[in-house]
Amino acid sequence: MPMLTYKRLPYLKAYIHVLAIMPLVYLGLAIDADALGGDPVQAVIHFLGKGALNLLLATLVISPLAKRYKEGLLISTRRVVGLYCFFYASLHLVAFAWLDLGWDIALLLKELVKRPYIWLGMIAFIILLLLALTSPMWVHRKMKRNWQKLHNFIYLAAILTPVHYYLSVKSGWIEPIIYALLVVFLLSQRRKVVIKLLSNIYCFFKKT
Ligand code: HEM
């Protein structure tokens, strides 16, 4: 019999809210205490980027866990975890655009040429944005089968982000490689869908 019941679900969701907000409280306190080391701007960008990536992996782990332990209701926590992933990614982007670039568009264009990995982050961010916008139940109902097709793009975001991470570091590539291996493992559980998605994207670009 499943342990997660309709009665327990709100507690689990409350726990998820606390777990997702706590790192932001920690970050706020660390900024306030000037405890982010010699380059606080980079530290904030890294902290939020890693937070977004961790939450992306957490979103991907929910379905296999629900299946493995026959906890169907667990699936309904995917939306809140995914939205927190989008929230962290938005803060990561704002921290970069504001603290690093001072909202200077010309500088952003220069950075896009100098640091091509930012393109990958941007594509991942656009995917997360579309998924967040279409996450309400009424949009799901309206989009019918197209909703699932769109939401499968989370797998592309999950592939792009560790590459974005790997290319952004000058040293210390072990962590991005570990993230990439985790993504490969999580995606290997949905290989059919992932292969179909990647071949559709390939065909799309071949045609255009
Ligand atoms: C428009 C979108 C994005 C932009 C402009 C962007 C920008 C950046 C930049 C500039 C860095 C490197 C900072 C540095 O070392 O100088 C970075 C690192 C990173 N980003 Fe992004 N990013 C974007 C989207 C994303 C998304 C969607 C995720 C995750 C879901 C993500 C996760 C990461 C991670 C994990 C790192 C490495 C952090 C570390 O070194 O500890 N980024 N990003």
TrEMBL record:
Entry's cofactor comment: Binds 1 FMN per subunit.
Cofactor or coenzyme needed: FMN; heme b
Cell compartments where the protein resides: Cell membrane; Membrane
Bilayer-spanning residue ranges: 12-31, 43-66, 78-98, 118-138, 150-167, 173-189
Organism domain of life: Bacteria
Pfam families referenced in this protein's UniProt entry, alphabetically: Ferric_reduct
Keyword terms: Cell membrane, Electron transport, Flavoprotein, FMN, Heme, Iron, Membrane, Metal-binding, Transmembrane, Transmembrane helix, Transport
Alphabetized InterPro entries for the sequence: Fe3_Rdtase_TM_dom, MsrQ-like
Its membrane topology: Multi-pass membrane protein
GO biological process, one term: protein repair
Gene Ontology cellular-component annotations: plasma membrane
Example GO molecular function: electron transfer activity
Residue ranges constituting the Ferric oxidoreductase domain according to the UniProt record: 55-160
Family: Belongs to the MsrQ family.
HAMAP family, per database record: MsrQ (MF_01207)
Primary role: Part of the MsrPQ system that repairs oxidized periplasmic proteins containing methionine sulfoxide residues (Met-O), using respiratory chain electrons. Thus protects these proteins from oxidative-stress damage caused by reactive species of oxygen and chlorine generated by the host defense mechanisms. MsrPQ is essential for the maintenance of envelope integrity under bleach stress, rescuing a wide series of structurally unrelated periplasmic proteins from methionine oxidation.
Subunit structure, as described in the record: Heterodimer of a catalytic subunit (MsrP) and a heme-binding subunit (MsrQ).
Protein name: Protein-methionine-sulfoxide reductase heme-binding subunit MsrQ
